[in-house]
Design goal:
It contains ten helices and six strands, in the order βαβαβαβααααβαβαα. Strands 2-1-3-4-5-6 form a six-stranded parallel beta sheet, sandwiched between helices. α8 links the parallel β5 and β6. The chain is globular, with a radius of gyration of 17 Å.
Length: 239
């Protein structure tokens, strides 16, 4: 009698500010992809058609919840500011029940990219200034070069609107508290990539934490096997 193979649980992957799901390409050949059905998901305006209305955390959280309902995924791997989006989506009507926060926003200091949008009065000026800043960081850094190129593909208005809304969110409430309130959460990070305020918060709160020693802010690119191992360990411990 043929053995019936159990369907793999779905795991949605969403990128951080201005980026798209191509940042997770190298995870698709790791053990994580053999154990779970990985679903790279481009948020509207960032690899997918933009929303008709304003691009806010709330609107993107609804889009993520809709994708989770479509795919039946229960786990989300969310990078940087997308961690806030995931924490809101878990409170919506969706099967999502676990967040793997990949150096997600914990304190206002984590909005060192997105938060700068609040300093500009229009999308075009912000886009130009942001890309100039990233181009300087990209000198000698292929990881920043890739990030620059993907930000350049993002919808300028969506980029500006999300950045301003992320800043408002961080000022109105604590992103870390929102993340913890989501329930099953694991935080994956390396100390050198995080502001002191974020490290202080992490060390003083009872949250599952996984060190990605030696990895950059984009470990799915420069440390995919390490990230795969830690994601699987986190899921196992949180279930």
């Amino acid at each position: 009698m043929d053995q019936i193979e159990t369907p793999r649980a779905g795991l949605i992957m969403i990128a951080g500010f201005g980026d798209n799901a191509s940042m997770f390409d190298r995870l698709l050949t790791t053990p994580l992809a053999h154990k779970y059905a990985l679903i790279p998901y481009n948020l509207p305006g960032f690899g997918a058609p933009s929303l008709e209305g304003e691009t806010t955390i709330e609107a993107l959280a609804e889009a993520l919840a809709k994708e989770a309902r479509r795919s039946g995924a229960k786990i989300v791997l969310a990078h940087s500011v997308a961690s806030i989006i995931a924490s809101i989506a878990l409170h919506k009507d969706s099967p999502l029940e676990m967040i793997l926060s990949l150096e997600g926003n914990i304190t206002a200091d984590d909005a060192y990219f997105s938060g700068t949008a609040a300093d500009y009065d229009d999308p075009a000026t912000f886009r130009t200034a942001f890309l100039t800043r990233l181009a300087e960081k990209a000198r000698g850094s292929s990881i920043f070069g890739r990030y620059h190129d993907n930000v350049a593909k993002a919808d300028p208005e969506a980029l500006w609107q999300l950045g301003r809304d992320a800043q408002r969110f961080s000022e109105a409430q604590h992103p870390g508290e929102s993340l913890v309130a989501s329930g099953k959460v694991s935080y994956l990070y390396d100390d050198p990539n995080c502001p002191d305020s974020t490290l202080d918060w992490l060390h003083s709160h009872d949250i599952d934490k996984r060190r990605l020693v030696g990895a950059s802010h984009w470990p799915s690119i420069d440390a995919p096997d390490l990230l795969s191992t830690e994601c699987m360990a986190a899921i196992k411990d949180l279930q």
